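Margin note: ligand = beta-D-mannopyranose.
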Amino acid sequence: MESCDIAVSRTRTGRVELAGVWELSATDGSVPPVPALLPGDNYTALWRAGAIPDPYLGVNENQVQRVAETDWIFEREFTVPAEFLAKQFVFLNLDSVDTFAEIRINGKPAAVTRNMFTRLRREIKPLLVPGVNRIEVRIASPVRMAVRESEKQPRPVGLNSNNRFPHFNLIRKAQCHSGWDWGICLPVSGLAGELYLQAVDNARIEAVRHREVHLEDAVEVEVTAELVAERDGEVEVTAELAGVVQSRRTVLLRGENRVRFPFLIRNPGLWYPAGYGPQTLCELKVSTPDECVRRRIGFRKVEVIHEKDEAGWSMGFRVNGIELFAKGANWIPADAMPGRLTGADCRRLLEAAAACNMNMLRVWGGGVYESDLFYDLCDELGILVWQDFMFACARYPATPEFLAEVEAELRYQIRRLQSHPSLALWCGDNEVFMCLGNAKDRMEYAAWRVNFDRLSRRLAEVATECDPDRMFWPSSPCNGPANMDEVCHDMSRGDLHYWQVWHAGEPFSAYYNVRPRFCSEFGYQSFPSLRTARCYAGESGINVTSPVMEHHQRDRGGNGRIVEMFTRYFRFPVGDEAVIYLSQLQQALAIKTAVEFWRTLKPHCRGTLYWQFNDNWPVASWSGIDYYGEWKQLQYHARRFYAPVIATAFRVPDGPLELHAVSDLAAGFHGAIDVAFLSFGGEVKNRFRFEIDLLPQEAKKIAELPEEEPTAGFYYLELSGEGYRHCNECFLTEYKRCDLVRAGIRSRFFRKGEKLLLELIADAPAFWVFCELTETRAVWSDNSITLLPERPAVLECRPDRPLAPEEAAAQLRVTQLRDTWR
Ligand code: BMA
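Resulting structure:
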């Protein structure tokens, strides 16, 4: 037996890799063959070969729709060594084929696929010859196949209004491939994950999973290896965990076999979400003479707190006995052309989440079950995952064929993912239950509801059977498994998608009327960074109503809504740079308003996940990080409004001005909040200091602050203690009514060791000072900050490429709110 390879989960023993360069051609001969890198997709290959323009730029998307209406063949040759065929069996492994494919080996049919969310494994030894072989994956147009599926339905199922091509709800493909209200319509075809042939003598390892029971000072771990045998036989299976090795000679029957290994781990280091303790991981290795599968697992007990209480039913998460406040955002696929996405992109995004004090991401149901790397990184970084099953914003069939397809998908995905310590919850779908409310009358509702219940019941059965240790939450949003007879959007129970601010144009203050138990979606749009907008719109195209800017806005009326909101709160911005800056500031302030308020409501409210973390192409959207990886102001504000200890001041409608402190620390906190009321010129008019003591995890009202003349100045809060510091500002009226001073800001780049630092000093209060490098992507330690006069701030600048201080200085653009109007 070979030793395990660190970089991958399986040894390369007895393996023939199929990843690499393939050839792609259209079956109708309309496009000459081009090289295609797999895993990857047809759009990426065609773009890389220069056969289509970059769909992300200008309005090129319109020119490339035919790609999705065409059938494609990916093919390549591969070499099979003679020894490989000396093994008894050879199976083909394709982790994800997107979507309707016929696979041929040496011209002979090997398999068909129809669900990108299931793995294909098929015994193919009889089709192989020693030496050169050929594999062909012929993928039918998903657009055509979706229509064909609709013709098979006994009665119409309905459409998804986010999709440009209809009936994607009938096919098991990422729903957002057909466009979304932030997404380009690029129904890609391709292959994802691992692609290889594996030779085995006995059985193949189909899945490795574990269950854990937490005792006083030990964890009982039961490891299960699932093996598939092509015929009856015997095999030696070995499991290794925390230095203990167990081997078993096992009798196999043809088909699926399970081998269980009990371990008792004494005094294990536990895995905690970020902010609550270390992310201790250990290796689990299962092997047969032919194969070795390894995983990194972590021991922790994760529970959903869903109990009856005074307000209704609670909703939140408890890990290792600690009740935490979930802080995070919603994750969508990070690239509409999967072949463009690198592991480094994925890592950079998830590290940004962790750097911004997030402890949870929701993998949203209109995308994909993410890559192994995604969950490995979440484990490593302490980010809990709320995992939707892949259904979103539409009605779905409940025919026996559809249910069987979905069942196979869940069985595969749950087994693949359940051993990740980060995985906290399985959720049935995104907004499928909520959309039932769109039925035109009770008859229609009843018909839709029957379908929903059938599908939901099957999801629940499979989820609880495959993973009895995690909760199945039927839909997001919903009132919880115990309350599925009621419509959702209840402040007393369940998770909430609160969209009145944005979709219904309510003011930011509307957030104060909402007291969710767990807010799993709420969002506000902005434009991406100036550099990103320039990329797709060109220097001259950046104007909110230019055809390109409207094209890169998928929510009807979205640009207008951003601008309309300016008129409520801000003086109207002059110039493209000001418009972009202000749109991002407005977004950040909207989300900050909601999060800070909802954090003060804990434990009534136990989590906020804003919409949305990332983008899948360059576009105006609700994201905090744009497609090219530029952090919008929201992302920097998230770091502060999700900080472990914060101070915030606000007035709920008709209420007094209240000062609150919130701690997410597992220990008590002792510190102080310095509060000052300053004129816009910077003169301190009033000053207080509050000593504060917070219990572990406590949110507490500290004081009511004096009512000052609203246009005379602003409150500045500075919380400090035990190594924590959090600054915040509070305006008493709309920003547009305040005569802000345009502060002079002196800046100086310098090096300290490896670090590139920027010192900023303002001569008057400067609000939401945003630093950018015009030619280089850079992430800053902090940004969009408020400067008080003559109080220097030092920011670390982390550019994509090394820059000397002088070079950085030449590219620096600093914008404050007052710069947005003349
Ligand atoms: C939600 C999501 C998405 C959508 C977003 C913005 O509720 O679930 O479907 O993109 O709103 O409208």
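Residues 180-182, 366, 392-393, 430-431, 497, 521, 611 surround beta-D-mannopyranose (CB under 6 Å).
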